[in-house]
Recover the amino acids of this structure.
């Protein structure tokens, strides 16, 4: 079955450390997205990608880096983690930027101590 | 912010009752989508309604769109305990660089 997989599901790290969250989709969707979900804010877009090697900033990109060398993978890196980046992170994919449904992974719960 | 606003923030009903959730938005849209999120899981797409549509159905779900009032509603009929979840509306605003923008969500509790 086609789907989208995030790893790890849970991660605890310390401030200043680098951490990478992985996202893999088997839909062959051109678009992929990274969101963070925080109480009181809903889902906020961090970065998105329209295709391999094409990425763009979302609403809250500061402190994050993305890459997309292959269509199916879209890793998110926190280069120097801060406590404010403690959140639940969701990856999604879609055939379009906004005109088609998005398919979500089950998220990574990240705690930064 | 172009975030849509859902109303109410929380809703508690008895099994078998209908649940109505509302979403208002600010500028013109290409489409509006509703998603469900169960605790500890990712969002699941429910229905997409385009700006030229007024009503769509999917099983026990009915979505309406009123572009003149910039609002949408999601009706779940004959609710079940398994409908307990958070529900989000997401809007695809018109414009060159538009992206899907999610609201903060509505928490629905269905009591057995």
């Amino acid at each position: 079955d086609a789907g989208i997989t995030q790893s790890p599901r849970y991660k605890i790290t310390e401030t200043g450390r680098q951490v990478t969250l992985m996202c893999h989709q088997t839909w062959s969707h051109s678009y992929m997205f990274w969101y963070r979900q925080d109480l009181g804010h809903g889902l906020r877009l961090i970065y998105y990608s329209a295709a391999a090697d094409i990425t763009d900033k979302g609403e809250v990109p500061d402190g994050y880096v993305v890459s997309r060398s292959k269509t199916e993978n879209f890793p998110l890196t926190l280069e120097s983690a801060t406590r404010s980046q403690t959140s639940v992170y969701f990856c999604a994919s879609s055939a379009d930027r906004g005109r088609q449904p998005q398919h979500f992974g089950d998220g990574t719960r990240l705690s930064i101590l | 912010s172009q975030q849509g606003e859902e109303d109410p923030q929380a809703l508690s009903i008895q099994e078998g009752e209908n649940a109505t959730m509302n979403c208002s938005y600010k500028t013109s849209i290409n489409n509006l989508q509703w998603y469900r999120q169960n605790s500890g899981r990712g969002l699941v797409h429910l229905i997409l309604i385009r700006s030229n549509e007024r009503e769509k159905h999917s099983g026990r779900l009915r979505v309406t769109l009123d572009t003149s009032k910039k609002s949408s509603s999601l009706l779940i009929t004959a609710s079940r305990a398994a409908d307990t979840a958070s529900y989000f509306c997401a809007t695809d605003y018109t414009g060159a660089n538009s992206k899907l923008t999610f609201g903060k969500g509505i928490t629905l509790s269905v009591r057995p």
About this structure: The interface with chain A takes residues 3, 30-31, 33, 40-45, 48, 88, 90, 92-93, 98-105 of chain B (CB under 8 Å).
